[in-house]
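Issue 218. Parser rejects a valid record. Input:
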Amino acid sequence: MTRTNIYLDEQQLERLRAKSEADNIPVSELVRRAIDAYLAWNDPTYTPHPNQPKRRANSSPP
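Output the parser choked on:
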């Protein structure tokens, strides 16, 4: 995986954080899932990569 930065408006970030807490899933994972859904919607041949091992937020890489 490659680390990247994105800009979100306050409402987007608030909603992502609420969903993250409700589902116990990191915001980054929600963003990856949303991107996979978008890419698959626009390109039926797109196959998302299998989920990578989960890390806790702000933890060091393995």
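Fixed in the parser; the record now loads. The CA atoms of residues 11 and 24 lie 19 Å apart.
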